[in-house]
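hey all, quick one before standup. I had two proteins in the batch that finished overnight and I want to keep them in one place so we stop losing track of which output belongs to which input. First protein below, input sequence then structure tokens straight from the run.
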Amino acid sequence: MKHNRVLDDVATTHLTERQVELTKYCPLNDAASQLASTLARMALVLACSPGWAQTGGEQAAIVIEATAAAARWVGNSDTASVLAGVDSAQAGGVSSLPMIHGLGDDRIRTLVNGVPIAAACPMHMNPPLSYIDPANASWIEVLPGATPVSLGGDSIGGTILVESARPTFAPTDGAVERDASVSSFYRSNGAAIGGEAAASMATSAFIFAYEGSGVRAQDYRDGAGEKINASRFETSNQHITAAYRSGKNLYEVQAALQYMPYEGFPNADMDLTKNVGAFINTRYQGGFDWGDMKISAYYDHVLHQMNGNTPDRYPPSLNITGFGVFPTLERGQDFGYRVELDITASARDTLRFGNELHGQTLDDRWPGAPVGAMFDYVSINNGTRTQLGTFAEWERRWSGRWTTLGGVRNDTIWMDTGPVQGYEGIDPTAQSFNASHRARTDVHVDATLSTRYQPDDQESYSLAVARKNRSPNFYERYAWGKNTIGTITWFGDGNGYTGNPDLKPETAYTASISGDWHDRAARLWEVKVTSYYTGVQDYIGVVAICGPACSGMPGSQLMFANHRARLYGTDVSAVYALSNTPEVGVFRLTGSGGFVRGDDLSTQTNLYHMMPLHGTIGLEHQRGQWSSALEFRAVDRKTQVDTTRLEPQTPSYTILNLRTAYQWRSVRFDLAITNLLDREYENPLGGTWQSDLYRPGYPGPTFHPLPASGRSFDTGVTVRL
């Protein structure tokens, strides 16, 4: 396999941690697998090339940010923020939203252990990646844009697959293997402290494993030393796995529990005051003469609570709601199954067929008694959303240099919700909503075709085209309030949003082309360039109902509406090995960068949350048990903003990050300094600073960009028992 070549020189086997099992979608060669084994219990990040994630052997293009994974776990508890090749829209401490080529949130299909967890919150405070700590993620796979139909469905931006540790059985009958590890970390900015513990016991047929993690952090400070109110958080995750293997058959049951008593959101007007998620997931994988069969079934239940006037957000004397407290209560469920058959039709042909169901329920009520109202505000009344999908794929290796992958998919989405009411009962807006026909049925037809050509052992080229569809979520379609209190706030921009039951599904047409060049020896250098274009029909944008002048607030009241949009951009990455000698070790230079532009063609405005031109250059070193890296990141000014959403501009900035690690027997020590020079800057995707809305000295509430975190000294230690 050619795409892990630069890592061959730095792959080591100093650790004998548990083996990280990767699926055939992104196979590793022997050297890279050894490197992956050194990063067990850390976040191993994979980024498959656009449109080419399912081919085996030499056709799978992989970038592994291996040396950075462990240090990023020490320096960050937000899984979305450690993904390679992915931008993240800042939110709470563990709830950032991944952005792939300008598309994010529900436009990306995110599976945690194969389960599509829907956000049970109008502000999406509990997105899928918030339910798994980076320390518990054994591998993460990112598939931008034109993803295979077997991994897509009801999404247009790409797919993210996250897996906790897969079962590792004892190698021989009668053997019993036991493994355990503990780790802990501390970050100076925000006084964050946390840790992880794992233990497993396995025979050749059975395995039982446990993983747990927790973190608590106070409000962070920016580069000027100013405290960012409402940015503290606390969360814990518990995960149990039991598995049984018989011949080529693997049976697995996973159960997980998350408890989050608090998570502040400085770019929202509400904070999370409780989130409890319980999950169960069963999976079967069997090997037969004709190929493989995979079956899974899952269920989860989420209880979510928010409040709009929690103590650390504003001074006690300031009561912005006039009510003192402003609680909300949401309950959500996900349930479903997935069946996939991988049929080896010939030595060159593989056929894949599958069927899956994903059901969602959501109930969203805002208790009236705490705000002095006679009635509870019912935002979503026992809403239901059911997706039924079927797909077929054909992968063919025409020769040793040319391979194609094509597929089609059909999804049907059924949505409905019950009657609603406001704080005063059935007001005119609620009455109009209740009298309307609310049930909707959407039919999707997706198709993907990708091809890869490798003319020689120094270059390869990939081309992918796709048609993808996504239906509106609960709040885009059914959030019915139209006044300042009744609209939902979302996206970290301070505006209020109203749903639109007549929204059509988004239909995206994507094309991407990639080139990969490297030296003949496949060890010294590599350059990869990917360009893409996406045109979206019925893009779910917004129109203004009421601007700041009539709302009496700094934000606008907006309604979702179908528009036409386009997105395009380029990603570049490169690696160059500077030296590799026993005396000084391995030095290598890495670089990555990209830009994305997004246009709303219907309103002639910019799309929201487009990342400006940015790049990162790193100098990495490894010698024996030592590994270190110095990282320089530069981001251009953000001037292309969405004026309808009052998106703020942000200045350009540069930051330095430093990290080092040392492995001594079964103990690993990590040290990192993020934002080494303590630069004061704003994340272009950070939204507005809502917890500083009422700044002293200003005549009224005023929007400012949310400041990013200042310098932090991060330390961590991992011990294998």
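OK second protein, same deal, sequence then tokens:
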Amino acid sequence: MRIERIELKNFRGHRHTEVDLGAGMTAILGENGSGKTTIPEALIWALYGSRAARGNNDTILFWGAEKGEKVEVKATFVLDGEPYTVARSVKDATVFRDSTPVAEGAGATVEFIEGLLGMSREEFQATYFTGQKELEWLRDKGPADRARFLGKVMGYDKLKDAQKAVRTERNNARSKADAIENLLSSEQPVSEEEITAAKAKLMGALTRAKGLDDALTTANTKAEETKAAMAELTLQRKSWMAARDEFRSAEASKAQADELLVSLKAQREQAAANVDHGDYSTQIESTEKDLELTRNEIDVRKERRREAEHAFQLAERQLKDAEQELRVLREQGSGGRCRTCGQVLGDSWQESVRRAEDKVTHLTHQRDTKEEVYKGAQKHFADAPSLTHLETALAELRGKQRASETAKATLQTIDTHIESAAKAADLKTRILEQARADLSTVTFDEERFDQLSMDAARVTETLRSLNADLLDATRTVERLEAKVSSLREALDRRAKLETQRKELTQNLAVLDDTDRLFTELRTALNDRLRPELSEIATQVIAEITDGRFTEFLLDEDYRIRLYDSGREVPVISGGQEDMANLALRIAVSTLVSERSGRPLSFLILDEVFGSLDAGRQEAVIDVLRQLSEDRFEQVILITHTETVKDLADSVILVDRDEKTGASGVTTGFGPREAA
């Protein structure tokens, strides 16, 4: 597999970047955070989708993308002489061979790539990618973690997962076997003899039920015959009862008419006795005249009393005025003034007093006279005739007159009712005679009807009893059928459980063997892994150190041991350990590629120099260049180390525009390519 071109649009920090990759060693150079690592990350994302990217689909879109723009990555590579292009967006992907689509859709693209390359995403990354963090991890972790990492990279964790699945299946099978064993031990065994005995009881119950069903059929026939006869008699009885009810109704109606006529005649006799034939009109007229005269007399006496009262009150007021005038004269004396002319009385005062006293005397006599007249008028009014007895007499006369008139009207009404009642009684008599004639024409055998009624009751009771017996027999049959079925099911269930127990026992044996074989296989693979990795890493470390280290060994604890001319190096420095881990990582990639069935075609190393000095870095680059000639068609080195620029075949400079925040690339040639 040879990567030819990677195009990024709105992928992370890259607005629009196109990277062309050639043969040999390519250095992707740039400062930290410039977007170097994003380029190989975009390659993996194009091939394997969202699982290959850091974060998620929402975080890979370039922050400065315009509304409506989307993430797009195209990766072009050559495999077995065939050119392929994978075009992927967030929601879609397509694989082209030349210009012909061979897979469409995100899921279909991943499936096609995995089949084409023969690698999952994890295997692809483990084979072709090496990062600084990975080498630091190898350096810092202990033997057990290092062994687990190497096993995972080599895909041995799949064997572990498979063995875990086998053990889970075995545990489930063992649980099922234990459950079946518990069921078999808890259930009472069933024999064919029990089923035969239950079937015999069932046959007896069926025979009884058949006999009851036949008896019920006979009883139903009898019931139908009785029902038909009862229906005919019921119709006759209905007609007879209707005629009888009609006769009884007419008879009762005739009796009511006769009773009403008798009652009305009695009421007439009582009403006739209440009729008064006296002449009340003359008496009422005379009494009304007397009442009018009396009222007039009372009004005259009342007027006289009012006039006498007025005269008395006037005389009394005049007397009071005269007495007041006399009192004032006496109080003022001769110095007082005349009330008429206003002059001082002087010597005429005594004359004025005398005249005032005479006036008081005269008015006193006049008042007393008026008072006597007023008292006489009051007595005369009090002695006037009373109206009460005349009004009472008049009311009594009018009441008697009204009662006489009411009695006469009542008598007339009763006579009208008596006439109507007599006609109604005559009609009811004719209706009664007709109803009697109609009743005599209807024939009905009441004795036969009663006999059939008793027969029907007996048949109904027989049917009820037979139905109850048949229901009981049916339930017995159902119960026995259920018992036979239950016994048969129990027998079949036990046989099935015993078969399952046998199959599970056999399956457990197979799973035990499989678990053992997985353990042996993992042990064998791990035993082979260390020598094979050691052999490949020895070649790489020898090339990196120009033959200084002659042997690289992974011991049983997965600790790295280096040998110089056959002698173990007692203390490995930090730089030597970085070289050893790099050699081990290259060996892992080589071995994974060999076991995948495809030769290694490219290798991507991201910031792998670690603590190596300039000389060692150059040595590593020389080794990588040598690897690009002997083992790898392409070696892509991602670094911020400037010395690489002069040692690579081609250089891709990555920087970030401070204004737009977008990453961009500049492609150039290294010294070898330029030469």
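Flagging for whoever picks this up: The first strand starts at residue 2 and ends at 11. The chain is about 65% helix and 15% strand.
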